[in-house]
Design brief:
- With 88 residues, this protein is mainly alpha-helical.
- It has three helices and no strands.
- It has a single domain, classed as Methane Monooxygenase Hydroxylase, Chain G, domain 1, CATH 1.20.58.
- The longest helix is centred in the N-terminal third of the chain and has 37 residues, at 5-41.
Length: 88
């Protein structure tokens, strides 16, 4: 356990940030699952709406530093491929 006041503060701050990151990641995973369910259902309009929301969530997670920007771009690309395969 930390004895120095600044080290104790860092522990508290890290716990807060960890909780925030966990919430963002959990919401992101849920958004991706709802998009994949919409694609599996075959509903094009719903899939487009879910893709838009998921892409926004990915961009926000990348901007907050929860995900690397290249990972967010890669996931968005893979989801777009699934959406386009639904349209074709």
């Amino acid at each position: 356990m930390a004895n120095i006041k600044s080290a104790k503060k860092r522990i508290k701050v890290i716990e807060t940030k960890t909780l925030r990151n966990r919430m963002i990641k959990s919401a992101l995973k849920t958004s991706i699952k709802t998009f994949l369910a919409a694609v599996a259902g075959g509903n094009v309009e719903e899939s487009k709406a879910e893709y838009k929301a998921t892409a926004k969530a990915l961009d926000m997670a990348a901007s907050k530093g929860v995900l690397h920007k290249n990972k967010a771009a890669r996931v968005k690309s893979r989801l777009a491929v699934r959406l386009n395969s639904l349209n074709a």
